[in-house]
Amino acid sequence: MQLLKWVLNLLLVCSMLQVFPLPLAQTICSEADRAALLGFKAKILKDSTGSLSSWVGKDCCGGDWEGVGCNPTGRVNTLALQIPERDSTLYMKGTLSSSLGSLQFLEVLVISGMKFITGPIPESLSNLSRLKQLVLEDNSLQGNIPSGLGRLSFLQTLSLAGNHFNGVVPLSLGNLRNLVMLNLGRNSLTGSIPSSFKNLVHLQSFDLSFNLLSGFVPEFLGQFHNITFIDLSNNQLSGHLPVSLFNLVTLSDLSLSHNQLTGSIPDQVGNLKSLTSLSLSHNKLIGPIPASISRLQKLWSLNLSRNGFSNPLPAISSKGVPSLLSIDLSFNNLSLGTVPNWIMDRQLSDVNLASCKLRGAFPKFRPDSLSSIDLSSNLLTGTISTHFTNMTSLQKLKLSNNQLKFDLSELKVPDGISSIDLHSNQVFGSLSSILNNRTSSFLEVIDVSNNLISGTIPEFTEGLSLKVLNIGSNKIAGQIPSSISNLIELERLDISRNQITGTIPASLGQVVKLQWLDLSINRLTGKIPTSLLGIHSLRHANFRANRLCGEIPQGRPYNIFPASTYAYNLCLCGKPLQPCKGKKQEMVQ
């Protein structure tokens, strides 16, 4: 009975605690850690994110200090301040305080996307012996990578990408044997890939892209048996592809593009059974493409462009590379003649076969999946007027530098197409159809330069998305319509080498995003309107060889362009040419 009474009393106490809970002992953050965080805050001179404005009061562990996390004993173990990639308006300006090195219990340090945090990485960060993640991406940090980071033996993630670091990669980073992810990409690092990296056998992701690294692709990469991602692109690496690289059965993404690699692709490439993306473009690789590539069952993206690969192209069966969606063999030494059936008959999204010596009529691809076609710099002939009617997914079409001959006004393209490049063919007809409101509502790029197009420039309606309009080197006459002001997104306009007459419309000054303007070698008359001074983003302009007269707009950049910009006109004057008669030329501020 006494035992039962004791149990009932205990249950009563517990139920009362649920209704009237006793106050818990609150964990207040360590004063030393709070001081270290405030030391970091003091070095940030501008914070448009507003994150650091929450760092007030004595308790940095109460949940109110944005980006700060603590362990149960009140010690700061996380500092994570990150801006989304696409938000260009938010930033922090300042430097990293050495006080961060006093956060003895820190396990995660992420300061990413702040854009304007400059200066070096403080040496004191090498004291953070418990650190597991160090991410300082997309800031403006500079100097050498501290060798002391090699003492952070628990580190699993190290990313210093997207900064301005220079010098060699420290050998000491090879001591970080627990690293799973290493990203030093998008810096200015020099020297070779350290031999000490052979110790990083647990790596799953390895990115040194967009640096100035030289030397060979290390043979020891073949020992990284857990690796899934390797990107060494955009460096100055040379030598052959190490055969050991092609034994990595877990590797899914390999990019060695934009280097100076030589030799051929080993037959062992077919061993990469997990590979989904292979990019070896912009190197000096030669020889035939190995037939073993057909064994890559998961490969969906293959880019071998701008090398020296030669015939024969492997004969791949319909069951080979079954996952392939994107292929780029452009600018090699291939002489294909026609597009191989194993490319033609697939449901591909991107086909890039520029400069592959294709001949004859335009090939008939499967229409239901293609989003991008580049068959430029070949020997294609005939018409393409109705080839794209059913290609409802097509967004980019590049057929420049061929021998295509058709009436532009008869070209039928899908409503959602964004880019058309037909320059340097034998296209004739007028611009009216390609620039009508239905077709061009999504169009951002039109390049039909160096053809036989005639007629006039049509009126531009509102709502157009054009960023590039190049109609140069044709036989287009008439005037520039004042409705050109409707091209509010336009960045590049080239109507050079035509037969355009009339004056330059003042409304052109409303195209304020314009960066490139070429009106040269036409029959334009009148003055260059001063309204063009409203285009502050202009970097290049050419008015030469017209019949223009009067004072050049006296403001930047027009009065500092070279004199050749205005040469061979009727009577232009003012800086950078001779002063106008009867008017003293003003000094440039």
TrEMBL record:
UniProt cross-references to Gene3D superfamilies, sorted A to Z: Ribonuclease Inhibitor (3.80.10.10)
Primary localisation category: membrane
GO annotations of cellular component type: plasma membrane
Membrane topology summary: Single-pass membrane protein
Compartment(s) where it occurs, according to its Swiss-Prot or TrEMBL record: Cell membrane; Membrane
Pfam families: LRR_1, LRR_14, LRR_8, LRRNT_2
Keyword Phosphoprotein in annotation: no
Keywords: Cell membrane, Glycoprotein, Leucine-rich repeat, Membrane, Repeat, Signal, Transmembrane, Transmembrane helix
PANTHER family: LEUCINE-RICH REPEAT-CONTAINING N-TERMINAL PLANT-TYPE DOMAIN-CONTAINING PROTEIN, LRR RECEPTOR-LIKE SERINE/THREONINE-PROTEIN KINASE-RELATED
Protein name: Leucine-rich repeat-containing N-terminal plant-type domain-containing protein
